[in-house]
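Example with several molecule types.
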Amino acid sequence: MVIKNAKYLDFSEEKIKEGDIEITDGRISQIGKGLRDENVVDANGLYLMYGMIEPHTFLGIAEDGVGFREFDLDETSSIITPYMLPSYAIHPQDPAIKESLSWGITTACVMPGFANIIAGAGSIIKTYGDSIGELLIKEPACLKVNLTREIMSYHSEDKINTKMYAYALLRRKLEEARNYMKRPEKKRDSSKQDLKLLLKVLKKEIPLLIHVHRREDIERAIMLKEEFRFLLILSGCEEAHLIPELIKKYEIPCILGPLMRAGKDPETKNTTFRTCKILKDYGIKFALSHAQSENPVKILRFLAMLAHKAGLSKWEALKSIASTGYEIFGLSDMGNIEEGKIANIVAFDGDPMDFRAKAVWTMIEGEIVIRGEI
Amino acid sequence: MKAFVGAKIFTGKEWLYNGTLIIDEGKIKKVLRRRRIPKNVEVINVKDRFITPGLVDAHTHLGMVEEGAGKDYADLNESTNPSTPDIRAIDGFYPMDAAIKEARSSGITTVYITPGSSNPIAGIGAVVKLKEGYLKDMVLKEVAGLKLSFGENPKSTYGAKGKKPITRMAIAAIIREAFYKAKTYCNKRRGKEKNTEYETLCLALKKEIPVRAHAHRKDDILTALRIAEEFDLSIIIDHCTEGHLATEEIKGVKNLIGCISGPHMYFPWKVELKHNSFKNPGILSKNGLTVAITSDHPFTPIKYLNLYAALAHKEGMDELDALKSITINPAILLGIDKSVGSLERGKDADFVIWSGHPFDIKTEATQVYIEGKSIVKE
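Resulting structure tokens for the full complex:
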């Protein structure tokens, strides 16, 4: 297949380019002038961008239109629940998934909510397919930890009262996993799914994603990383702009947000879109996320616009919703319109940074799977 | 290099009436008895002022109970389990708390922060320097003491729910049982799997950290000392409210490092506080004990720490002892007297310039230096 007459956004050169895009077996195989194929998509007048990624979401497990009792979001029966795999709960028919797809979001990392200290695995999905087998790209893609005060609001007073205890419980579990790792393989109880998952973290096969708001929790997360030697992704991190040098020193990627937030509490009171520009100036890798704010996932693009409004360059803003998210999760064959990448593309009828621009079609793995925004 | 000349200086031991304090690169270079100014030094005239070491409060919850944020933002008591040896104060610490700025600009430069007293085995305290910067740089000692709580607080936390401990007997039982188990764990060497709770108790058993016993009533103080003797633990008695009624029993106890007295400006709402008095630190001190006076912030505000010492002086404590009780003595008890607590060559340049005698109620801390840097007054 060849997409003809395209204007496309090249993130690596930060340019809007013109050319034909050839797609073979779901990947971009060639970009050039005058490419031919029997199967031609005319993109005259359209702006093509790589499909967006929502890196921290509850698509399919906090389903639209069913009410919260039907959610499969938080396993609050216990406070440490590593072995929760979203693929056993994601409902491919969640209307929000299709909606997101139609607005150009092609990929998402779904993970459990904010209730548990160790909440469970993150699962990378594509936003198209009838069954989880079709949706699922990678699981576990990370293990999610919460170290915000929200934990306390999900569990009764006789379970947990302080952040001190949250950290202690996390350390206990990580130490248990370290003990497990030290045992010879034959002596490890293979039925311990929790520990097997944590083992992947300690062996740096998957990152630990730690959701925090405040600067001191960012600092403590980094101290934990130094103590247990895991790969760290920071999530939330609304006060990252207060300690950018430290985050840069340890090269920790951040999944920022939700920055569009009303009803700030003492932990999130310093939330601002200006964080984006500051992190960029320090060379910190970050992606923007709604992270189950009240806003629908589909309007991810508006986060980039608000980041741009708060000083981030247009290209950095777009990368933060359609490129760095892939890098953070090590999805190296996604994230830009260039040869070799998987052909997840969205076509807009105008500059994607213009809020009036609409997604005309979205392509997943070389196939236009939806037309028009829902 | 800077020389502060003309002030009355309390060094941590004595008054120098016209001394010279010289600092260089964040450290104290010299403290001279007379006005003598070396060459190439920036001279700062502080005539009629008083200088003391930066104040140290050896028992606080500063930054753990956020000011103006409501009870959900208090990281004080983990009242879900009576034994939580491995919880750490530093994990509940909020470095941007308004009270920290206030403390700093009132002359307090170093504090010990500790979990609250709901649990017989309550957790780990840390020593924090109140400078601005990263958490890691603020922390002088991340693991500085293991808190044990005796008396009414654990009883009322759990007893009211019908849970153990309902009685003082159970408090002692919980603590002793844990140390017995930890002893076995610590002695085992080969093939040992790490347990974070026992690891902490081992630190106390090896005397790498002291146990910090929250005890008010005389019998609770003696219970704490009895347990310290049984397991050979270094012990500090915190609050020590009836300590002045128990001097005969506690002075000369081998395991006792000292007492942290206070908060005294506090309504005795509990039975065990009946004898709370500003006389307490003076009497303990006269009996040869190392005494520190505490605000127990936020239970009394830390910014008035100098005045709590002043009131202890009013109630009979020797003036120098009272000054030591908020400077060098807490530093000794926290095991940080090599770097803070007094104005001596080589120590951190943490000091306060006061408008008058620090025990005068009208006096203000006009400037506060931490590691040679002047703190902007807020």
